[in-house]
Design brief:
With 153 residues, the chain is mainly alpha-helical. It has 6 helices and no strands. The chain is globular, with a radius of gyration of 17 Å. The two termini are 24 Å apart.
Length: 153
Amino acid sequence: MEKPDHVKQTTPRLAALLVISVLLNFPWEVAQMPLYVEEGSWFEFALHCIIPSLGDGLIVMLIFGVGWAVRGRSDWTDQPGWAAYVLMLMTGFSVAVIVEWVGFYGLNRWSYTASMPLLPGLGIGVVPVLQMLILPPVIFRITGWWFARRNGA
């Protein structure tokens, strides 16, 4: 029995999702650099942003995986309705809060400058949390557009 198109395209979809995600998250990481305390040159810090951008790509893939499990389709992001957007936002917010809290408080991996706005009650940066609320829907939209164009739809 032939697999549905959305199943056959899962591996290329995941690869495209990761590439697009890293490419869009990198400028965000560089733009928020002044909100973090760092030593070294701006160029060194910008190069360092590659690693968090890869981590952001994995977070976007996690959001995708949660949606796939809940929605039951690997193409759930191509034409998301309000429920899919709510799922993206809830998952993105939850993962971002956990990552930021563990990185900031649990592992002391980074610290903020006085310019970083903080989430009340949590004391973690607003900007990295917004990143996982704003960019995943954009990334999913671009990936869906690219697949539709690639497939002649």
